[in-house]
Design goal:
The complex is a heterotrimer.
Chain A: E1 6-15, E2 18-28, E3 34-37, H1 44-52, E4 59-64, E5 67-68, H2 74-80, E6 82-84, H3 97-109, H4 123-136, H5 151-164, E7 169-173, H6 181-197, E8 201-205, H7 209-215, E9 218-223, E10 226-231, H8 233-238, H9 240-247
Parallel strand pairs in A: 3-8, 3-9, 6-7, 7-8
Antiparallel strand pairs in A: 1-2, 1-4, 4-5, 9-10
Helix pairs in contact in A: 3-4, 3-5, 4-5
Chain B: H1 2-33, H2 40-57, H3 62-83, H4 93-115, E1 120-121, E2 131-134, E3 137-140, H5 141-163, H6 165-175, H7 177-182, H8 187-213, E4 215-216, H9 220-235, H10 240-260, H11 265-279
Antiparallel strand pairs in B: 1-4, 2-3
Helix pairs in contact in B: 1-5, 1-8, 1-9, 1-10, 2-3, 2-4, 2-8, 2-9, 3-8, 5-6, 9-10, 9-11, 10-11
Chain C: H1 3-24, H2 27-52, H3 61-78, H4 82-104, H5 109-129, H6 131-134, H7 157-179, H8 182-192, H9 194-199, H10 204-230, H11 240-253, H12 260-278, H13 282-296, H14 300-309
Classes of the chains: A alpha/beta, B mainly alpha, C mainly alpha.
């Protein structure tokens, strides 16, 4: 298989006595749409937080495209192409939808240092922003303040901001939470489409099993800080340990 | 040498106890309401002026003034919380800070209007006005009295918070407002009560300061509130234990500073505040975020 | 006609009006107008940090004083050139802001406010106590106004006025450029959501520090010009109560608008002058005004006007 995009080696993280990551070894490969599932408190969110730099790791190493990023701050990881979206809506509420997406575009292009330059003349950033708004279907709402959007649209914007950072690897933390079925189908179709294009590799944390098994190329099951199963969806679905500790009656 | 060291220590302790009286109310209010009250120094000042006036009205009975004066200030605190502060709890931090700052401006000028912009000489307290010899040098009795009062107030606060029903409610609300509310605590009323009580502590500090500072000036609240901020920050915002310790440290530091390195006396205080904020923003006793 | 053009016309009219004031105004009016402009320079810069980046500093008096004392010491001991002196003042303030800001931007909210208070008061205590250098509570006196480039006299207030006006116009231009630059947008993003900004690839602390230094430099410019205007420096300009002035001014005018700090400065200076004519108690009135703004008009004067006109700015 190709060189992994992100490699995690011996990752350990605990809060007091609660271990949320116990010596994890994971490789994420380019183009492989991976889902991370697990019951509440399994350590999914913590894993994302540690991998993206929001929380420091207690032990272990994180390699991104072969480079050790364990000690790097969040914004540098983002600039290297490792990004995430959030479980709860986490946008810039007072700014327009357009500006919401433009901020990461500018930051990635290194244009933010232009203290006296005119924002209106940033043609390239404008085109890129428009492209992303088109992609997530918010182009017609570009001038509205983000706080005026519906919840579903805010979730779309959330994904749009994450995509605007041109990630090679993008963690989506419950991207469909709080969406209605129509919006849900749209965004999933979008994710699948983008994933096939091969620019961005997606890793999704989800609760909805239908989504997980219809969408993913690979499923990782976490339980109390351990990986109890890792493989193709069909294999994971049949794994007795997973059924016992997590899926329970839902799948039976 | 030993004599002067002891005297510098005692002077520092008595100064620290005044800061503690102001900082205790400030800390209590911050701990429960989450508001850093710039106007707390104004309550100290109002306490002093009210006590002074009552003193001159009532045949110089200091103790009666000390009881009634702070009660008047409590009424002021009640109005401020009930009709103004309550409306900004949901707003961002700058608005809360600036609302209390507005009251600093208002109270300072009101005091100037009522009592004049100049300084007022304050009377001494019968029975506590003299000095006692300590290691061969005289030390004011009243300062010794203050050194006793400070820990008594601390003890009283501790007993109230740890041993009484009201204290338990206050502590519960300080740690989790929603939970307390769900358990049937009437949070708005509690906030008012805590604010008024904090006001009372500051005003008592002001009342006790009347014989100590010698002169009452309209700016007296402003200088002590900054000291109290420093103390509250050093001890950990919201921690009474920390405020007590912080007050002792700042009192002693400033007393030693004034005696030995007067040039950098004020500088020391603020560098200590900055260092604590950078190194341990939760202070000595505050809980880690 | 678009709103931007209306805005530009308004500013052109204001500057033209100020130019006319400079030509025909009485000494008193000139002095008042200069005080407004100096405070506006201070507040325009400050509001890049406060309104734009969302950080409440209680220490910017220190940078104002940095500019004033930097300029004054340079004038008294090294070189009487006024423009060089102003540049030195701005540089001193910016450097001071860089050092202090380096520590302060590690925190936000109340801890940031308390840290800036502590550092500001450190500067105040140094100015207050190092009498041999700073003159202590007397301040530094005898700051003259030598001719610019050795030929253009600015000794009289009527002449100095145009230097102040030039600096004010320059500040307006620079602050406007900053607000409508990519950098300015990222600052607004940090105010709205600093966590998300980091995950958008923004080095949040570095941007905060940049905003801090820029606002400090403008405070220094205001301070240097202030020292020249009054021909002395005041230790209390570093005190935290002076740091509260740009906050008040920004709030009165409206912290989310470009013109807010300017309008606020005019209201502040003029109202203070009027109130002081009738009573000694202008602080009381400002306290009351502040109460009304916080409880009822948090957008400030310009915020209210913009809402009337419909649409706001980001």
């Amino acid at each position: 298989m190709s060189q992994p995009l992100l490699s995690v080696r011996g990752l350990y993280k605990a809060f007091g006595k609660v271990v949320t990551a116990r010596d994890l070894d994971i490789d994420f490969h380019p183009g492989q749409l991976t889902s991370i599932i697990g019951p509440n408190g399994a350590g999914k969110s913590t894993l994302i937080n540690v991998l993206t730099g929001a929380l420091p790791a207690d032990q272990g190493r994180i390699l991104f495209q072969g480079r050790d990023i364990t000690g790097l701050p969040v914004h540098q990881r983002v600039q290297m192409g490792l990004c995430r979206s959030f479980q709860v809506v986490n946008v810039f509420p007072g700014l327009s939808v357009f500006h919401n997406v433009q901020i990461p575009v500018l930051a990635l292009a290194g244009r933010g240092r232009r203290v006296l330059g005119s924002l209106a003349r940033e043609q390239e950033a404008r085109r890129e922003t428009e492209r992303i708004l088109e992609m997530v279907g918010l182009a017609d709402k570009a001038s509205q303040p983000a706080s005026a959007l519906s919840h579903g649209d805010q979730r779309l914007l959330e994904v749009g901001i994450a995509l605007a950072a041109r990630p090679r690897l993008l963690f989506l933390d419950e991207p469909t939470a709080g969406m209605n079925p129509v919006e849900r189908r749209e965004i999933l179709a979008g994710i699948q489409r983008l994933s096939r294009q091969g620019v961005t590799t997606f890793v999704i944390v989800e609760h909805d099993m239908d989504i997980v098994f219809s969408l993913s190329d690979r499923v990782i099951v976490l339980h109390r800080g351990d990986i109890i199963c890792d493989g193709e969806p069909s294999a994971v679905q049949c794994d007795p340990q997973v059924r016992e500790c997590y899926l329970g009656e839902e799948v039976l | 040498m030993l004599t002067s060291l002891v005297h510098v220590c005692l002077a520092g302790l008595s100064k620290g106890m005044f800061i503690w009286l102001v900082a205790s109310g400030l800390t209590l209010i911050f701990g429960v309401l989450g508001v850093l009250n710039f106007a707390h120094g104004a309550f100290y000042m109002l306490g002093a002026y009210f006590c002074y006036t009552l003193l001159s009205l009532m045949a110089d009975n200091f103790w009666l003034g000390l009881i009634l004066g702070p009660l008047c200030v409590c009424a002021v605190g009640f109005v401020m919380e009930r009709f103004f502060l309550r409306r900004v709890y949901h707003l961002e931090l700058p608005y809360q800070l600036l609302l209390t700052f507005a009251f600093v401006l208002i109270f300072d000028d009101l005091v100037k209007m009522v009592w004049g912009a100049g300084s007022i000489g304050s009377p001494s307290v019968p029975g506590l006005s003299g000095s006692v010899p300590i290691l061969g040098r005289l030390f004011p009795t009243y300062s010794l009295f203050i050194i006793l009062v400070g820990p008594l107030v601390a003890l009283g606060l501790w007993a109230m918070l740890e041993r009484t029903w009201a204290g338990r409610i206050i502590r519960a609300s300080a740690s989790d407002r929603e939970m307390a509310s769900a358990l049937g605590v009437r949070v708005p009323a509690l906030f008012t009560a805590v604010f008024v009580f904090g006001t009372w502590l500051g005003a008592v500090g002001g009342g006790l300061a009347v014989p100590y500072v010698g002169l009452l000036t309209p700016g007296m609240g402003e200088s002590i509130i900054i000291d109290a901020f420093v103390v509250a920050v050093i001890g950990g915002l919201g921690s009474l234990k920390g405020a007590f310790l912080g007050a002792l440290i700042i009192g002693l530091l400033s007393s030693f500073g004034t005696s030995f390195i007067p040039t950098f006396d004020m500088f020391l205080t603020f560098i200590l505040m900055a260092v604590v904020l950078l190194w341990r923003p939760q202070g000595f006793f505050g809980e880690a975020a | 006609m678009s709103r931007t053009w209306i805005g530009r016309l308004c500013w052109a009219a204001v500057l033209l009006g100020l130019l006319v004031v400079g030509l025909v105004g009485s000494r008193f009016v000139l002095y008042l107008a200069m005080r407004v402009m100096l405070l506006a320079i201070f507040a325009l810069g400050y509001n890049l940090l406060f309104g734009r980046t969302g950080l409440l500093s209680f220490g910017h008096g220190a940078f104002y004083a940095g500019g004033a004392y930097g300029m004054a010491l340079f004038y008294l001991h090294l070189n009487p050139d006024p423009l060089l002196g102003i540049l030195v003042g701005v540089a001193v303030a910016a450097l001071l802001a860089l050092v202090i800001g380096f520590f302060c931007v590690r925190h936000t909210e109340i801890y940031f406010a308390m840290l800036t208070l502590a550092f500001g008061m450190m500067v105040f205590s140094l100015i207050w106590n190092l009498r041999e250098i700073t003159g202590g509570d007397d301040g530094l006196v005898g700051i003259g106004r030598d001719p610019v480039f050795g030929v253009i006299s600015i000794a009289r207030d009527g002449q100095f006025y145009f230097l102040v006006l030039l600096c004010f116009a320059l500040t307006l231009w620079v602050v406007h450029r900053i607000r409508s630059s990519p950098f300015g947008l990222i600052l607004a993003g940090i105010r709205e959501n600093h966590q998300r900004s980091e995950f958008a690839g923004v080095a949040v602390k570095r941007y905060r520090l940049a905003a801090f230094v820029i606002s400090g430099a403008f405070a220094g410019l205001s301070g240097a010009l202030g020292a020249m205007l009054e021909s002395n420096t005041d230790a209390f300009s570093a005190h935290w109560s002076h740091s509260a002035e740009p906050i008040l001014v920004s709030l009165i005018g409206g912290i989310q608008t470009f013109s807010g700090p300017v309008v606020g400065s005019a209201v502040f200076v003029v109202l203070r002058e009027v109130i002081e004519r009738y009573t000694e108690n202008w602080m009381l009135w400002f306290g009351l005004i502040l109460l009304v703004i916080i409880l009822g008009f948090r957008g400030g004067a310009m915020g209210a006007i913009e809402r009337r006109l419909g649409g706001g700015e980001s």
